Prior knowledge:
This protein is mainly α. It is 61% helix and 6% strand.
Amino acid sequence: MTPSANTTPGMFSYPRQDLVAGIVVFLVAVPLCLGIAVACGVPPISGLVAGIAGGLIVPWLSRSALSVTGPAAGLTSIVLVEVQRLGSLNVFLTAVILAGLLQIVFGVLKSGRFASLVPSAVIKGMLAAIGITIIIKQLPVAFGTVGGIGDIAAQFTPGAVLIATASLAILFGWRHTPLSKISWLSSALVVVLTTTLMAIAFTGVPALALAPKHFVQVPLGSPSELFAALPRPDFNAFLLPATWVAAVTIAVVASIETLLSLQAIDRLDPLRRRSPPDRELLAQGAANAVSGFFGGLPVTAVIVRSGANLSAGGRQRMSALVHGLLLLLALLFAGAMLNRIPLAALAAVLIQVGLKLCSPALFRTQWKLGMLQFFPFALTVAAILATDLLKGVIAGIVIGIFFVLRQNANGAIVDGRDPDGTRVLRFRRDGTFISKPALVGMLDTVQDGEHVIVDGSDEFVDHDMKEVLAEFVNDAPSRGVRVQLRGIDLAGGVAGGGH
Length: 499
């Protein structure tokens, strides 16, 4: 049951926990914001602006306690394609503003409720696939490699490996230490502080020293220089049809990713809180409009940062706000300090998040639930890994619908006999067109001279099924078959529909 407004904790109810969590999320978000911007082919500062907009705008409007908003890897391909199609980043930023306004309209129209149509198996598959993706992407970083897993052997960096190993030891051994009893102290924060000191110490050891590429890289400059470097939207593009097409694409995809991430983080919330999706769309729309106006990428609720928030002990929206404030301060003043944090440590934090999302226990649980749950789950995982998040989720939904239809088709009608030998075809649920093959198959096995009862009492039987039954009833006298219908009115069921 949802707590009343009088008992629901406010955004600032857990300042110590959320301050620590906000710092950890901020440290995770910095390289993600920069990396996604680079992957999109836009200036790195656009990624930081998006993270700032998501952190400073969404917490005030959203009612999601744990979700964190920022630029999302799932939108990378869309950004790349649309920037090239529109001809410039400036026009694309106009599309981002329009996308934000469209999301606000989606929220006002209460479109968020449609996210509940996504099957549970698909959401769990999305979580697992994101976890696997995080691990695959962060393993090379943990080894000090710039590139993919195949580059680890050639670019192996001992100092980065030691930092990543120490980080993982702290993260997974944390609950066994006395420090874990200190509620405000986060294992991830200890990892960042400890490994920063380790990196400084390695400076004097040539075999372990880290190169500049192994550290967080925040652009440096005065506030005025940074503001002048921000790309600007081209407001003349508001009337271009291509801009609106891009805006609709961004709005739909960002909304889907946000709502799925919202459901996913709600499932991980130990307090089992539920976030209103329509309110989230309003918040995300406002953040996207602001991000586009100031030169930032489109944003969504992001499961990676949200998972880091949860792992770091976040309790309320203040942690997301803290992360946004720190991103702003980092952009303006603290670039040199952030550049001392080793990426291998942040990779370890993300690897832990990934392992939690794709734990073996999750796969075992889905397997035990049967193929109706496991197959859509496994297909969603495979499709996301092979393509992208949106295509994978769509594939999972399609296969989930197929399995539901198949189950209904195979189990809607029971074929049996009464003690006196009468053949009884009994509807156990509504008889719709998806059960038509099963009904046709059963009627085809009726022998000449049999007595058949078709019992549809208290169940809905649609026109397609009535057509099949009407043709069977019309043919029955010629074969000596006696047919008795219970609870089925064949009025409107025109014989000759064929089966």
